[in-house]
User: Fold these one by one.
Assistant:
Number 1:
Amino acid sequence: MRCPFCRGEDSRVVDSREVEEGQAIRRRRSCSACGRRFTTIEELVLSVVKRSGVTEPFSREKVVRGVRRACQGRPVEEDALQQLAHQVEETVRSLGVAELPSHEVGLAILGPLRELDEVAYLRFASVYRSYSSVEDFEKEIADLRAARRGAPSGDDERTSEDNGEQP
Ligand SMILES: [Zn+2]
């Protein structure tokens, strides 16, 4: 890494520490030519293997783009997309592998997307799981309904009714 001040090629590490829970290392360097200091970050690259066999580095931005497409016309804020992508990154990084197939990334998207917006989830799942019939959608919707029934938010609503609270 060239010195950002003098473009010198030689530097020595004066300090290094782990950041982002050990996913990256931050190094403080001193340029051998001009003596000025700068910081570099060394990050573990998580590779995603596409169906075609091509490998590319995991990209949070790519997750955002894919989900944004599924969210078109839905009341989903940009912030929520960023948060979802962050969550997906944490999930796939926590797998502790250097390389993972792209469908694992899709899988990590489905859970949080379902929480975020059910319509966007159905759109995304239909592509990801390559639904081929109306029955596939019906089954997915049945699963959504079942999950909704089991959701703790339903219990909360019942509690507030019991207390006689008005919204
Ligand atoms: Zn320098």
Note: Helices lie at 60-70, 78-94, 102-116, 118-128, 134-150, 152-162.
Number 2:
Amino acid sequence: MEAASSKLSLSLLLIFISAMLQHPRMGATLGINYGRVADNLPPPEKAVPLIKSLGATRVKIYDADPTVLKAFANSNIEIVVGLGNEYLVTMQDPEKALSWVKTNVQCHLPATKISCIAVGNEVLTFNDTSLSAHLLPAMQNLYSALTILHLEKQVTVTTTHSMGILETSYPPSAGKFRQDLVGPITKILDFNTRIDSPFLINAYPFLAYKSDPKQIPLNLVLFKANDDEIIHDPVTNFRYENMLFAQTDAVHSALEKVGCNKLCVQISESGWPSKGDPDEIGASTENAKKYNGNLIKLMKQKTGTPMKPDVNLNIYLFALFNENLKPGPTSERNFGLFKPDGTPAYYFGIGGGSTSNGNSSSSNGGGSSSSGGGGSSGSSPVAGGGSSNGYPYLSVSSDGRSRFVQCKIMQIFWLGVSILSLRLIL
Ligand SMILES: *[C@@H]1O[C@H](CO)[C@@H](O)[C@H](O)[C@H]1NC(C)=O
Ligand SMILES: *[C@@H]1O[C@H](CO)[C@@H](O)[C@H](O)[C@H]1NC(C)=O
């Protein structure tokens, strides 16, 4: 009798130990933008497994559509909701801000993990001063509303900027804000600092390349600069093998010049189109594959930029789907990783999405030209990456990292407890 019960405790313990040791995924996240300017997209419930198949654990949307937010309930995916520029005027009224938060954020918590409200998109570079003037008050009113509802600890408030807010970005140490925007930006930065919310910037090396393909080496924008293409910053002596990091450090420099270099910078959008107009040099499947694939590889290596080597950049890829109703050049409708039917727009050799279907096959997907398994039915269609811990897409934010450390400490603690109890039993 006694032997049986101690055997039982022993096996329970062993199960417990192995469960504790297999807990590799805390803190590591890939983000993806889920835009829906299209009339042919699958319902949001279909987007959730696609996002999981990528291994993404953060999503940014451009509104607070209840069908989307409901679809993400209990998915454990963290969501940034958006408040369109057209709402900024309404949000000048604190009462309306409060009711907006109640009906668009509070009612979905905690099942849907809304972590942030991105107020307006690239507002300052619209050059519409009356719109810009409404940005900060809207952010403040939304934050006050969150505070009234005691949600300010779980949901933060920020806005997204375009690289156009910089007047100078080359070399990175020369980065500074557009002179006419220094005033409004500084006030927003003070707000970010006060509530400890991140500084979000949309950064597209593609746009830089497209505007000047003769001067800018394609390898540099695709993360693979040759020795003679590396950007050398004469002031800092830093070397940049990719333009995204150069752009990010230009932002860091601009922030430093206005005394805000402590803010956490995150890339709220970055991506590459698989198709474009004839004059959109660089837009191609081949380059999109390289850009997104190399970006994810870089995130896996967990290297920060030369100026902030210890800070892992949080990046939200743009975008989940091709969006057929977006205005503008052809590229705008072709940034998606997936076509509307849920098949990959191209294969870019990331994956190992072991979460969605329990398939943790870790075939190495450095390769890129295999046809991508064409899998439907929720299997990982762009899979092929895989990594030793089954979690290939790392973009750990600083708080993510501390959670990761805590998680490791807990593992060691429980291992100790388990060994101790084993000794007591045996
Ligand atoms: C806004 O103004 C800047 C410089 O004053 C200009 O470079 C930019 O193209 C303008 N943006 C728009 C959307 O008009
Ligand atoms: C996992 O993926 C591999 C490679 O795509 C496939 O051969 C295998 O059948 C899959 N296993 C499961 C359980 O889905």
Note: The pocket of 2-acetamido-2-deoxy-beta-D-glucopyranose (ligand 2) is lined by residues 357, 359, 361, 373 (CB under 6 Å).
